[in-house]
Design brief:
The complex is a heterodimer of chains A (269) and B (331). Chain A is globular, with a radius of gyration of 23 Å. The relative contact order of chain A is 0.13. The model of chain A has no long low-confidence stretch (mean pLDDT 93). Chain A has one domain. The longest helix of chain A is centred in the last third of the chain and has 23 residues. Chain A contains eight helices and four strands, in the order αββαααβααααβ. With 331 residues, chain B is α+β, with helices and mostly antiparallel strands. Chain B folds into three domains: 98 residues, Beta-grasp domain (Ubiquitin-like (UB roll), Roll); 150 residues, Fumarate Reductase Iron-sulfur Protein, Chain B, domain 2; 57 residues, no CATH class. In chain B, the strands form two sheets. Chain B has a five-stranded mixed beta sheet. A two-stranded antiparallel sheet of chain B has the order 6-7. Chain B is globular and about 70 Å long. Chain B starts with a strand and ends in a 78-residue tail after the last helix. Chains A and B meet through α3 and α6 of A and β2, β7, α3, α5 and α8 of B.
Amino acid sequence: MTTTATRPAGAKPRAAIEAKTLRTDRWWLAPVLTVIGLTAWVAYATFRVFMQKLYWVDAYHYLTPFYSPCVSKGCYPAAAEFGRFIPDNPLIPFAALSLPFLLLFRLTCYYYRKAYYRSFWLSPPACAVPDGHATYSGETRFPLIFQNAHRYAFYAAGLISLINTWDAVLAMHSPGGGFGFGLGNVILWINVIMLWAYTASCHSCRHIIGGRLKHFSKHPVRYKLWTWVSKLNARHMGLAWITLATLALTDFYIMGLAANWWPDLRFIG
Amino acid sequence: MTLRQFKVWRGDAAGGELNDYKVEVNEGEVVLDVIHRLQATQEPDLACRWNCKAGKCGSCSMEINGMPRLGCMTRMSTFEEDETITITPLRTFPVIRDLVTDVSFNYTKAQEMPAFAPPADLAPGEYRMQQIDVERSQEFRKCIECFLCQNTCHVVRDHDENKPAFSGPRLFIRAAELDMHPLDARHDRKEIAQQSQGLGYCNITKCCTEVCPEHIKITDNAIIPMKERVVDRRYDPLVVFGRKILRRDQLAATVPAGPTVHAGPVTVADGQAPVDFGRETRPPQPAEVNAAGHVNLNEMLSDRAAAASPFGDDITFPINPNTLNYYHPER
């Protein structure tokens, strides 16, 4: 306990500093880059999801992650590994079962929250730079209280990562049937590994794996897992951006193959 | 040696302004050295808190070029030679004078926080903990209470009206420290964090972590784990369902919610009443102030030598143990 130098006597004013911020560095750069990056990615993803073509390479069984699992009645039968039962409608994405959960997973992600609260919502745009809003209630009430649903989105994202892994396995296919391997497989596998890394580095995952424990010494296996997830978790931001890039690049490569813009570089078959 | 440009905020609660100074800067110096030179050569009554000059006492918190920093840990070599360096007091707290602010908000919030609750079945001296169990809590013990995180957090910095409802990052690491403590007997720390500390106000924009001079991962290791622990209790239907089915609610309810005191015989000495553990402790008496509301900084004007006692000037030592909320279990 420290002595306060003056007697407490009601609310006292803060230092009357006129400038809203006195920061002289380029604090605006990170939010601007975030806005550009996220907007570009969302625009590309939206365009591709509603394009409803150029998502499947029949010769090599490549399926873009934006259409996985392909469950619409409009899907190519060969691409629909899990059946076709969703109505074919230009407004319903072919992967309508997975995309909402993936969107929710990234929207409620603790890193993306920081990114868009800072850059889009300006709350605050940077440290010690004033908030762009007159009032603030944080995540205490509707709708932002639903950020607490991140854990469920994480469970769903885990299942979807399994589906993506299965897609990558099926894609090791040659035009004549049997095993095949090409540049497309390398890209698909890199994407899947990065998706797993991003999903496993999630803060909710870290909590469930071991963070919720009070006695690590009584749970040595979970403690070990927790230390691994903690190492990944420190790179959550990097993985968040890397997976956006690998998703878009994988999709773009497969779109190019499907549209015959370039041939697949084949190593086997 | 070079002469560099500085702007330093001078004033008090009635108002103030940024004054321009040219101060000598030598190789290897930090901002606090410059403040001291400014005091020594130009502004003898410039007010500034400082103690250790080593980044361990947390006294010299100020805003340097708009960023909350410790004066003693900000090297002059990180600035350009021709750069004007602006030094202002912390914005979030009421100003007392010049670079000194009234940070009592943080102490009030700390007092509202329930203390460590010792396990009922262990006496002092019987506590045993594994190193891996206390490691997480130990990170938070590095806190030097410079309150840079409290100052930079936009929840209170930009919205003063949130101060009653929001305890701030420094107290969230305290909450996490106690909730992760292997021997803490309280089961309601998540509820306290959510309901009375205002954990939900945090939107994890991580400025507290950015400014922490001790590099404590406040957001990743304390706030987010606490948010997840609250989710466990309040927002996870599977857990809520499980607790209803397995009737864990009733199990948890058997643990006392209030602070646990050590078990043991309370001996009543010579007809005196036993120690009343629920008694409110007397708040320390604040320092003596003059008509302007300031401490008499000058020894000539003060009625005692040296600084005012942090325990209150009305307290004499040794303290009468009968006024404390403590008894030794073996006496």
